[in-house]
Specification:
Length: 253
């Protein structure tokens, strides 16, 4: 069953203003994805945080529509079954307990900005607000995180063995593999790196000869080094990919 949508026009300000690290305003243009993490109130006894939804949007800088970015919004939502009770009752659920996933995302992008990463999005800003009386949980949190889109073209589709990378001539593939090793190794000493989920969000910029990760990212502890198994993980080892495809075909027989 599809996750219900809690995002509706007028729920959030548009444009959204950030003041740190630099003042800017960003206008939401369309929604990319939304997922609601619903729960009943009695589940709090298991140590869970309050329910929330996470939505990703395309946005553009106000007055400069050529400057494109993504905005991620975390918003507290009501406990299941209380969505249409009065605002006063829903306000009693209000919390400032922002999800760890939101705080980790913010910490990763801040870290990438601090180290001046050349292979990742640039942090635009983050902020926390309280929902108004017309929100789902009056007084509950609204957390915003915005970052730029990386340059280049997407290499992998997410399906095994499919995507632009596999259509390129071998010399170009070798160049991209070398760029991946350079880009991924650049994170080794900085306690942050692309997470495993980032492999479908690899972008190749042929003009600069650089590979970029759109995200997501994760914090790490301690230094690490490049290892040859990473070619397989990032689906750039074609022999490994072909074996996986053959296995999938066999299992489907």
């Amino acid at each position: 069953m599809a996750s219900p949508s809690f995002i509706y026009p007028g729920l959030m300000p548009n444009p959204v203003a950030f003041v740190d690290p630099l003042p800017s305003q960003w206008r939401i243009t369309s929604k990319v994805d939304e997922y609601a993490y619903e729960m009943e109130e009695n589940q709090l006894r298991y140590g869970l945080r309050v329910p929330c939804c996470r939505a990703i949007f395309h946005c553009e800088e106000a007055g400069n529509p050529g400057h494109q970015a993504y905005m991620v919004v975390y918003m507290q939502i009501p406990f299941t079954g209380t969505e249409f009770t009065s605002p006063d009752l829903r306000a009693q659920q209000a919390s400032s307990d922002i999800p760890n996933s939101a705080l980790n995302d913010c910490a990763c992008y801040q870290r990438l900005k601090d180290i001046g990463s050349e292979h990742t999005p640039i942090l635009i800003g983050s902020k926390v607000e309280s929902q108004g009386r017309d929100g789902w949980v009056p007084g509950g949190y609204l957390f915003y995180l915005a970052f730029t889109k990386v340059p280049g073209v997407r290499l992998l589709s997410g399906a095994i063995g499919e995507g632009l990378f596999y259509t390129l001539p071998n010399p170009q593939k070798d160049k991209i593999r070398a760029a991946l090793k350079t880009a991924y190794s650049s994170f080794a000493q900085y306690d942050v790196r692309p997470s495993w989920d980032a492999r479908t969000r690899l972008f190749w910029d042929s003009e600069s000869g650089k590979l970029h990760f759109q995200g997501p990212f994760e914090l790490t502890t301690g230094p690490w080094e490049w290892d040859s198994y990473l070619w397989k993980h990032w689906s750039l080892d074609e022999d490994h990919v072909n074996r996986r495809r053959a296995t999938m075909r066999y299992m489907a027989m």
